[in-house]
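FIELD: query
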Amino acid sequence: MAAKEDIEKIEAPVSASSGGGGSKLVLILTGINTLVTLGMLGILFVAFQRDQKTPAIEDLAANSPAAQGDGKGEHGAKGAAEAKKPTNFGKMVTLDQFTVNLATPGSVNPKFVRVNISLEVPNEDSESEVNLKMPQVRNVVIDLFNSKRPADLATAEGRDYLKEEIRSALNAFLVTGKVKGVFFTNFALSS
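FIELD: result
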């Protein structure tokens, strides 16, 4: 009988310690799993909110001037006959190629850009004025490129901003019409 009592004394502490320790470990792992799951849900929520803020193609098309209409009818939509009216695209003036140094303060290696530019003007009078004032046009473009650093032109946003600057600067001295758009038809940035 003594052997039986010794076995019971040995088994009782082993079963008590392994049962309590195992449940604590499961509880800790469950807590960690819950925190990781909540963190992932938070990341997904933030990413979803960011995606909701960026406009989709449909939003851009709906907000374009052509889709806005003239305020007549429901939601500003034009009639079918007006919607099929041909669009006035204007004239395109192609400028000679530019090879322009960029601003590289403190750099030993000069950086440059080689670009072809086309300007959209509303009519033939504006086209002839741009051609007559070509030295001023080229000077404005060169000055604006000279003021840019390579990093300014490395992104699409930077190039779009420069196009807008060129358009505004040219419209400041044109009289018969204004430049409607500036297009880079070829663009190479030295590395």
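FIELD: remark
The helical segments are 2-53, 57-62, 65-68, 80-83, 124-132, 134-146, 150-153, 156-171.
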